[in-house]
Amino acid sequence: MATDQAPTTSHEAPEVRTVGGARAAILAAAALALVDAAAAHTIAPAPALSTRLVRHLYDAGPMFAAALVVAACARLLERTAAQGRFRRTLPFVLLALASLGAAYLTLPDDLSNFAWRVSTSAMQADALLNGLVVLTALGVPIAALVGRLLGARGWSRWMAVLAALGAAVVNHLVLRGDYPAVHLFLGLGAAALAGGALARAPLPRALRPLRPRAATALLCALSLLCAASLVVPPPDDVALVIARAPGSSLAWFVAGRILPENEASLEVDIPPAQAAWFNGRADLPDVPPTAPGLVPPDPIVIFLVIDSVRADVLADERLAPRFPNLTRLAAESRVFSAARSPGAQTVYTVSEVFAGKYYSQQYWSEHPAGGLWPHEDTSVRFPELLARAKIPTITFASKVWLVNEYGVVRGFTEETVVLPETTRIRAPDAVSLVAPAIARLSRSNAGPLFLYLHFLDAHFPYDRGGAIADPYEAYLREISVVDREIGRLRGAVTALGLDGRAVLVVTSDHGEAFGEHGTIHHSKTLYEELLRVPLFIRLPDGAHRRIDEPVSLMDLGPTVLDLFGRPTPAAYMGQSLVPLLGGEPRALSRPIAAEGRLKQAIVFPDGVKVIRDQRKRTLEIYDLGRDPGEIDNLALRSGEEASRVRLLRRFFGAHALRRPGYEPPYRR
Fold it and tell me: Alpha-carbon distance 662 to 432, whole Å?
């Protein structure tokens, strides 16, 4: 018998499906990949369309690979985790542990130098470094938690997503050209904030027709395809543009070309005139002085280094009125129009010039006060050779590490740290260096003397010439400050009656970038805007001569020794410029090279330049005669200039320091 039964009616609201943790991770990766793609076109644009397309794959691939791992973990937790508070907190705990592990693997290289700079002891530096690593790592799960909380409401959810995208944009604008691990965690933090907010968003209608398994399979397939970028090394042109833009978070960590280990065994045709420089030189005899008679037996050599001065600043006649003292001094000097620094950062350059050896030829180790320094390196600095000859060697140091203890310089019989600063960030100004130098010169006797001053006024931040918005103008004003004090020093030399004995060497440790190759300041590259520096040497005769022979600051150690009538160790990688100062038409045979931050460069006599980055695994070759801006990378052409690359590797490999278990470290 049939029974009428009233139909049941449910008054419960339909279940609202949310994006969920797995899809949120993929969507956040997609959004950040779009930001990276947009930034790539502005910060490090690729010339060819094919390069741009492949570069976007390598930008997005690692990001999607990480998202895939997060999505898989989220799906696993959704199915297996316990209910309640434990289920809600477990993802953040796991994310924190993973973030801490990644942080300790990547961040110390980026943060250790900063920790040392703002600390007063090694223990304090280590504590600060560990604190920075932990705080940076915890920023990722905290960003995810904040995103999760803000994702509860529509307006706050999208504010969080916009904030994440803004952080991703800022990530490309700060610390440009370096600090890949810091960029990595800024990118991960942005992704965590966006993913946390999107996880609680309603599932978009566009995704609802797809069954959950089909949607997951589609997204996983896309992620796996992009994750292939982690296995297959990118082409050379792609690796180069990625290396210039570390803000692309994970892309920077993609492996590039594999470099052979035994550099000195490379078979290569060495130019006969330079053959002696492509093999070890430790067993060769010292190079005797040339004795051209340009200086009296008791010379006073005043070695002045102005930090961060580009060659084109002092060579530009339009700027000459702004630097009257340097302009006047250059008019009384031998001016080298094609001088290059052996590095792009003060520590490297000064240590290379004073030791006569490149970075990989010296031993760098942890100093008790913190940081990597050549204090245990046994290479003889040229002031040591002067001191052994009973020649007074004097410095008034603008930094605590520009004294004997740290090994960057060594051999000073008189050293004074001027106005030591507890923060180690701010250096004394030129006035503070010149005043005691003049006082010391006034007490000099009839014998020879060597004086070294390093002016840090023109170093960033450019604020010693008065507050001004334009960085380049502020930079020029800082050089004017040094110009005034060098004029005062030059006047004191005359007033003290020392003109007949004084030799003034004026140069810079490196140049400064103002947007070239997408970089600012210095230290990050070995392009010409950083390597080309001014160099002029005033002799007692006060004669002016322009010398166009390409030279290196590595030649200054042998030159100073030669001026004092002392031989040069054969292991020094430079040659004396004294014959050129005397007007002899002498071609120098040593290669002109540069090294620092595991980058190596060499400029050949015909103007071809090779740059090799061992850390980023990139290679560049430029014809400076045809392409002075270093834009057209010849290394991107198959087989182009392969012999030049082998020569660079052979040169540095033949002279590299070899100790059991020692590899030249990466030092900022």
Answer: 40
CA 644/CA 406 separation, integer angstroms: 35
β pairing state of 393-397 and 449-455: parallel
Contact yes or no for 291/563 (Cβ under 8 A):
no
Q: Which of 447, 491, 434 is nearest to 304 (CA)?
A: 434
Residue 619 DSSP class: E
**How far, rounded to the nearest angstrom, does the alpha carbon of residue 122 sit from its chain's CA centroid?**
23
The whole-angstrom separation of Cα 594 and Cα 609 is: 11
CB atoms closer than 10 angstroms to residue 543: 13
Least confidently predicted of 114-128, 137-151, 651-665: 114-128
How many helices and strands in the chain, by DSSP H and E? 18, 18
Choose the most confident range, by mean pLDDT, from 222-236, 276-290, 477-491, 618-632: 477-491
CA dist., res. 56 & res. 34, Å (int): 9
Q: Which helix (H) or strand (E) holds 480?
A: helix 471-495
Residues 181 and 198: their CA atoms lie apart, in Å, by 25
Closest alpha carbon to 167 in 22, 30, 35, 57: 35
Element (H, E) at 401: none
Confidence tier at 424 by pLDDT (50, 70, 90) = very low
- CA–CA separation, 301 and 540 (whole Å): 11
Degrees, nearest 5: CA angle 403-405-409:
45
Which SS3 state, helix, strand or coil, does residue 392 take?
Answer: coil
Query: pTM value?
Result: 0.81
- Least reliable range by pLDDT among 102-106, 134-138, 663-667: 102-106
By C-alpha distance, which of 558, 505, 557, 550 is closest to 532?
550
3-state secondary structure of 600: strand
Task: Please tell me the predicted confidence (pLDDT) of residue 45.
Answer: 65
Helix (H, G, I), strand (E, B) or coil at 18: strand
Assess contact for 485 and 302: CB atoms under 8 A. Answer: no
Average pLDDT rounded to a whole number, residues 18-45: 70
> What CA–CA distances, in Å, run from 202 to 31, 51, 418?
17, 38, 64
Omega cis (within 30) before 461? yes
Residue 441: C-alpha distances to residues 330, 444, 445, 506, 557 (Å): 22, 5, 9, 17, 22
3-state DSSP assignment of residue 253: helix
Strand, coil or helix: 196: helix
- DSSP classification of residue 341: -
Structural tokens at position 344 = 């792009």
Bridge partners, residue 414, by sequence: 394
Angle value at C-alpha 488, between 485 and 490, nearest 5 degrees: 110
Residue type, 297: P
Residues 435-486: pLDDT tens digits?
999 999 999 888 999 999 999 988 888 888 777 878 999 999 999 999 999 9
